[in-house]
């Protein structure tokens, strides 16, 4: 197993193979992977990156103009159909802008950190995301992915920690409730209460500059993030006063909620899969954690989301490669990764339901020599 092996792909091998566990001991190094990637894939262009921002902003305005101008003219039954179409389309393109803001946090937008932070701060603040706060907690996630002890988010429960209410919800209506709750409230609650995140010695959230999530030198930028969110709240208040709460909710509020839902869905599926290992401190190391993610296929939305969906394994290995080089870089390292690369092309709704049903808790295999390696199990 290792370099040169066949890549697992559900379109080629079926569901059984895509759920097959990935190996845990890679025979290659990060240096080997970087050498396989063409040099130009590491180049960041502020002009090219800015093109995607402008493009997405133009599309965003077109969707806004069409909805604001024509949906109110439709008969009521057609309007009820048109609004969800607008919310989906606008949320999709805004998610693309959110992804560019996320790239800024990884210094993948340009060669200049101040440009990246300025663009990221504006884009994320406009989408109700505290840019610097999330940038730093997300950095911690990249540094500790799939560590049971130190990862920042999506930390699964061990069997002994499965709560009573989780057992009650382990049925069809319970899973529907859990998925709806996770998609709609998961991101706001993570920011506010660190739900599903690392357990600190005290209450932690993304808006408190004194939160244990952050270091001393990061606290002033957390304050800047808060100012950005407060400015947005004030702008929304002015819009409500001028246009009404219903208009603001339809044109802006629900599309932004859609962005948060897409974000949670994408990240949940990237880090939740029966084939992916988790490690305690006795077996965790960086190259193992970077390989313990999976790419997903969102169909035509892959392009709308700037390919973040199906280049996530690469992203955890080398996070500063711009999205417009990501597919080429991913394809370049596939032969080196071999069996350590996985992409699951299961339809998204089916995959979401399967993971919610099957990935309940983690436990090590009783007969394994890797006692610090944990795998998902169902109840």
From TrEMBL:
What does the UniProt keyword field contain?
Membrane, Oxidoreductase, Transmembrane, Transmembrane helix
Q: Taking the first listed entry, what is the main subcellular location of this protein, grouped into a coarse class?
A: membrane
User: Which InterPro entries did the record assign?
Assistant: FA_desaturase_dom, FAS_N, Fatty_acid_desaturase
Q: Where in the cell is it found?
A: Membrane
The Fatty acid desaturase N-terminal domain covers which part of the protein?
25-61
Matching Pfam families, A to Z? DUF3474, FA_desaturase
Question: Which residue ranges traverse the bilayer?
Answer: 52-71, 83-102, 172-192, 222-240, 246-269
Q: Which residues form the Fatty acid desaturase domain?
A: 82-341
The pathway noted for it is:
Lipid metabolism
Q: Which family does it belong to?
A: Belongs to the fatty acid desaturase type 1 family.
Q: What is this protein called?
A: Delta(12) fatty acid desaturase-like protein
Q: From which organism does this entry originate?
A: Tanacetum coccineum
Task: Recall the taxonomic lineage recorded for the source organism.
Answer: Eukaryota, Viridiplantae, Streptophyta, Embryophyta, Tracheophyta
């Amino acid at each position: 197993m290792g370099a040169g092996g066949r890549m697992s792909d559900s379109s080629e091998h079926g569901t059984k193979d895509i759920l097959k566990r990935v190996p845990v001991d890679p025979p290659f190094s990060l240096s080997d992977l970087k050498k396989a990637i063409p040099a130009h894939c590491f180049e960041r262009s502020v002009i090219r990156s800015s093109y995607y921002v402008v493009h997405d902003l133009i599309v965003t305005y077109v969707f806004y103009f069409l909805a604001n101008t024509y949906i109110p003219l439709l008969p009521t039954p057609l309007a009820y159909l048109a609004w969800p179409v607008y919310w989906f389309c606008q949320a999709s393109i805004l998610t693309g802008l959110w992804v560019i803001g996320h790239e800024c946090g990884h210094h993948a937008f340009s060669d200049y950190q101040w440009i990246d932070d300025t663009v990221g701060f504006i884009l994320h603040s406009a989408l109700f995301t505290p840019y610097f706060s999330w940038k730093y907690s997300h950095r911690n996630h990249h540094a500790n992915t799939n560590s049971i002890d130190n990862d920042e988010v999506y930390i699964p429960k061990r069997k002994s920690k499965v709560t009573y209410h989780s057992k009650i919800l382990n049925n069809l209506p319970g899973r529907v409730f859990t998925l709806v709750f996770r998609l709609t409230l998961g991101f706001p609650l993570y920011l506010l209460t660190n739900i599903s995140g690392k357990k600190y010695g005290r209450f932690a959230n993304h808006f408190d500059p004194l939160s244990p999530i952050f270091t001393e030198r990061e606290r002033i930028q957390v304050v800047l993030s808060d100012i950005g969110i407060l400015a947005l709240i004030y702008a929304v208040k002015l819009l409500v006063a001028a246009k009404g709460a219903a208009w603001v909710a339809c044109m802006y509020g629900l599309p932004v909620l859609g962005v948060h839902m897409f974000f949670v869905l994408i990240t949940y599926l990237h880090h939740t899969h029966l084939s992916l290992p988790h490690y305690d401190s006795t077996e965790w190391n960086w190259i193992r954690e970077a390989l313990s993610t999976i790419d997903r296929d969102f169909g035509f939305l892959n392009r709308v989301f700037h390919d973040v969906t199906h280049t996530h394994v690469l992203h955890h290995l080398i996070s500063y490669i711009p999205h417009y080089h990501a597919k080429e870089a991913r394809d370049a390292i596939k032969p080196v990764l071999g069996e350590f690369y996985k992409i699951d092309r299961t339809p998204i709704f089916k995959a979401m339901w399967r993971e919610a049903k099957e990935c309940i808790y983690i436990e090590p295999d009783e007969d394994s020599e890797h006692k610090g390696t944990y795998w998902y199990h169902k109840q």
